[in-house]
Amino acid sequence: MLPEIGHIFLIISFLLFSVQLVFSLKFNSLDLKYSFFDVVKRLSFFSYILVISSFFILIINYVSSDFSVLNVYNNTHTNKPLIYKISGTWGNHEGSLLMWLAILSLYGLLFLTFTKNLPKRFAFKVMVTLALVNLGFIGFTVFTSNPFIRTFPVPSEGLGLNPVLQDPGLAFHPPLLYLGYVGLTIPFSFSIAALLQGEVTREWAKWVKPWILISWIFLTLGITLGSWWAYYELGWGGWWFWDPVENISLLPWLLTTALLHSVKVTEKRDGLKSWTILLSILAFSLTLLGTFIVRSGLLTSVHAFASDPARGIFILTFLVFVTAGSLLLYGIKLEKIENKKNIYLVSREGGLLLNNIFLCASAMTILLGTIWPLVIEVTTGQDISVGAPYFKIVFLPLIFPAIFLSGVSINLNWKITNLDYLYSRFWKLIIIFIFLVSIYYIIYDVPVLILLGVASAIWMLLSVIGDFYSKLFDKFKSFKINLNKVKKIRLSIYGMYFAHIGVAVFILGVALSEGMKTYYQGVESLNNKINVADFTITFSKLDKFKKENWISETGTFLVKKNDNKFKMKAERRVYLDTGMPSTEAAIKRNFFSHLYIVMGQEQPKGSGKRIIRIYHNPHIIFIWLGAIIMALGGVISLIDYRKSFFRKL
Amino acid sequence: MKLLKFLPLIIFLIVSIFLYNKIKHQKKLEPLSSALIAKKFPSLKINSLDNNDTINDFIKNRFVIINIFASWCAPCRIEHEVLKSFSQEYTIIGLAYKDSIENIESFLLELGNPYKKVFYDFSGKESINLGLYGVPETFLINKNRKILLKIIGPINNDHIKKIKEIIND
Predict the structure, then answer these.
(1) Cβ contacts (< 8 Å) between A324 and chain B: which residues?
(2) Residues of B in contact with A285 (CB under 8 A)
(3) In A208-362, where do the E strands start and end?
(4) What is the spatial distance between Cα B116 and Cα A25, in angstroms, rounded to a whole number?
(5) Does B134 touch chain A (CB under 8 A)?
(6) Which residue segments constitute the domains of chain B, with CATH numbers given?
(7) Angle at CA A216, nearest 5°, toward B12 and A97?
(8) Which DSSP symbol is given to B108?
(9) Local structure of residue B128 (DSSP, 8 states)
(10) In chain B, positions 39-78, which contact chain A (CB-CB < 8 Å)?
(11) Where are the domains of chain A?
(12) Residue B8 is nearest to which of A159, A330, A335, comparing CB atoms?
């Protein structure tokens, strides 16, 4: 009975959103009466609740292992711990789509709660845009990927979850990422509403900013967790693989980062309006494109779901309808919204604009690299794949100037055009910068690319410190630092500082770990000694256990570095329900660095020899630490917006 | 200048054409089952549980269904009922994969035996030649050892309809 209820909830909400759209067509001829607005608002509210309930119904089906539901039967198993029964709900195409919907509804509810002080005409347009997006996704779920389909006869046991997905990292990675993706629907709807109104104001920028920030925080966390999980669980020994789906998730992040900066210019200087609008449309479209590519199985990737062309056609139609419609609207209204204000290059807005251009250019090169195989296949019929070398070559030259410029713009004021000012502001910073980089180079003598990375990190840190210092500095009493000013600086400025320090830490992590990592692979029998970096590693023991729902083979390794000795355990699991293997790497964290051992299968069979891979990744923790600091900066800024968020929205 | 306003739209539409083109030509992928279809069933060094027969001799000149199973495999329990339901009509032989004699015997005692004969591959080495992806898997083979159908995962009533259609042809 329960699955039918969930199914019916989805259908009802589909109908309710259609009703809203029909209402909205009449809207222009009707005056916006209070009652009419409230009717639509309540309809939305009710539909959102229905969608969220139907998601919870699916979770209940999973928890109670109701194998009469085909989706549950395909993706879970009674032997699984509770948390993986729950996360199994979104470990598959249909369920994850329903989660997508539930999150969209959650954002819808949030929006409705905070609409009170928005102008009614504007809020109405946002609600209708949201209804349209909801309609598309609910339609997609109900017509092509219904999670509530029953199966008969009822199986007594389920098929189990893909063992790779049985990990806490995966329980949280998709929800976080979806919170980020789906959150972009709100800025998108705000942009469409603004285009329909025919005006983009500074007020508008203020309203939309917190929503962009929320998405950005979740995107940052989601991608970070995914990267951490790939490193920790999949045993790939790296943190970013330029896998199509990873790229597709990076694109909205880059554009949202650009958007965060350009909306700031719109808010403070009433500029870059059409650019801000275009970015929010593109960021949203890219999440749709990402969904399209992953769900239709167009590109092969670890993330790919079972492919079904019918789904692909549906999403493509929806994507073209939404994106082409928005871009058409954009083209028509463009002249109305943009004021022909000049932007001076030597000013904060100028720096932000340049920075934006580099960020978007890097996003475009990634997009090009990701869909290039499709273009080649259509034009020449060849099967090619674009790998990490391409992305490294094109991405790095674009991202370095972006980092350099962001350091510069932090230290610039709005609207200033004087080159002398630039000089007075920067000569000290540049001297310190050159000094530090030279010292680093003299001590460590690293390759150019690593030095460039370290230099960018230093530059970023210095510019944050420089700006902070100048804010504390009292202009009237020369050479005195006024510590009382620490409290006067706005919280959002601190958020900005944190985010940029996060970037610096991240780059430092990438440069150091890429520059100094070591790797070993070999077939080893028991008691063999292996030398990697400064470590001597002995393969000392191999045990077999039976655990909850897998058979575990655990290899024990004795590791010696100087006088320091410790044990490490690497595990290889074979899951009983599916018979599929998975590896759990042994990781020794020495605060910043990781020694990382993966034990593979027996090779050759019966010999007792095992494939052993060892990685030493110094300072790699900085990569995720940096990303988390970035997200933390976002949260700090969000706290500052909280007031305006509650009052104005 | 007028066109420039619509540049994003135009670029997007060009990209969509490529995407559409790709998806139109995309075949429904069945990479797991396609490799062996219409080829000869490979010759395997596999004996029956009673050690009286080899699988190569047994399937000679017979229209058989080969079901690869294991006592430790949960989906195999599910498909067992289905197998039993048509074991009277067709010859089904079992191939026990990575298992032990005791476990197979108790498995078949508990659930019933749909198999004409049970063979075993306890090391799992020979099954590699079948491109085995996981258990259960089921092959339909004609008298000339040609593989007509390969089913991955537990067999259900739809599969049986398909098997019947093929056999009636």
Answers:
(1) 9, 12-13, 16
(2) 12
(3) none
(4) 68
(5) yes
(6) 64-168 (3.40.30.10)
(7) 65
(8) H
(9) G
(10) 70, 72-75, 77-78
(11) 1-162, 167-417, 518-617
(12) A330
Task: Encode burial over A588-610: b for 16+ CB neighbours within 10 A, e otherwise.
Answer: beeeebbbbbbbbebeeeeeebb
Cβ neighbours for A329, distance < 8 A, ≥ 6 positions apart: A192, A195, A196
Q: Which two tokens stand for residue A489?
A: 């600086």
* Distances in whole angstroms, Cα of residue A280 to Cα of each of A16, A266, B36, B156: 27, 13, 49, 48
Q: Which residues pair with A93 in a beta bridge?
A: none
Residues 6+ apart with CB under 8 A from A470: A411, A425
Q: What is the DSSP letter of A481?
A: B
In this structure, are residues B77 and B135 in contact, taking their beta carbons and an 8 Å threshold?
no
What does the pLDDT look like over A21-63, one tens digit per residue? Answer: 887 776 654 555 566 788 888 889 999 999 999 999 999 999 9
Q: What span, in angstroms and rounded, lies between the C-alpha atoms of A372 and B33?
A: 29
Round to whole Å and give the CA distance between B66 and B115: 9
Residue type, A555: G
Q: CA-to-CA distance for A644 and B8, rounded, in angstroms?
A: 33
Q: In this structure, is the dihedral angle defined by the CA atoms of residues A451, A457, A460 and A461, taken in order, positive or negative?
A: negative
Instruction: Say yes or no for a CB contact (<8 Å) between A374 and B19.
Output: yes
Confidence (pTM): 0.78
Three-state DSSP at A319 gives helix
Nearest CA-CA partner of A394 in A433, A365, A427: A365
CA-closest candidate to residue B157, choices B84, B88, B95: B84
pLDDT per residue over A486-521, tens digit each?
Answer: 777 888 889 999 999 999 999 999 888 888 888 888
